[in-house]
Amino acid sequence: MTATCACGQASITVNAMPTMHGICHCSNCKRRTGSAFGISAYFDKSAVVSQEGETNVYALHNEAHNHDQERRFCTRCGTTLFWFVSTLPEKIGIAGGCFAEQDVGEPTYSTTDLKRKRWLSLPE
């Protein structure tokens, strides 16, 4: 499966299904996606087959979760494509929406639900 940025310049390909797949309603994920929530698919790093195109890094420390993040985004269109989280050293997070034409399965969890938009309803 290949996740691609909006302009198609950058992509990342994996050869397995995600080991974690969820929705996050925190302010950081909302800002990262420009949406009401973020959808993240986490894979074992060993599942990455290739990474194509040029990306830049946005690094931050998440105070609420006390971890560091390194986000990779397309240098042309700015799409956040994948990231690394210091508390998940064997995983790579890939933006679920970047698998636009492929099925990575249904998310299995929702987190930071206290910040979920009231109008947003999700399956149990």
Indicate the structural class.
mainly beta
Number of strands: 10
β-strand percent reads 35-45%
Secondary structure: helix percent: under 10%
The biggest beta sheet is recorded as: 7 strands, mixed
Explain what you see.
It is a single chain. With 124 residues, the protein is mostly beta strands. Helix content is 6%, strand content 44%. It contains 1 helix and 10 strands. The chain is globular.
Give the key terms.
124 residues; mainly beta; three-stranded antiparallel β-sheet; globular
Write the layout of secondary structure elements.
Blueprint lengths: L1 E3 L6 E4 L5 E5 L2 H7 L4 E7 L3 E5 L2 E8 L4 E8 L5 E6 L5 E5 L13 E3 L13
Parallel strand pairs: 3-10
Antiparallel strand pairs: 1-2, 2-5, 3-4, 4-9, 6-7, 7-8, 8-9
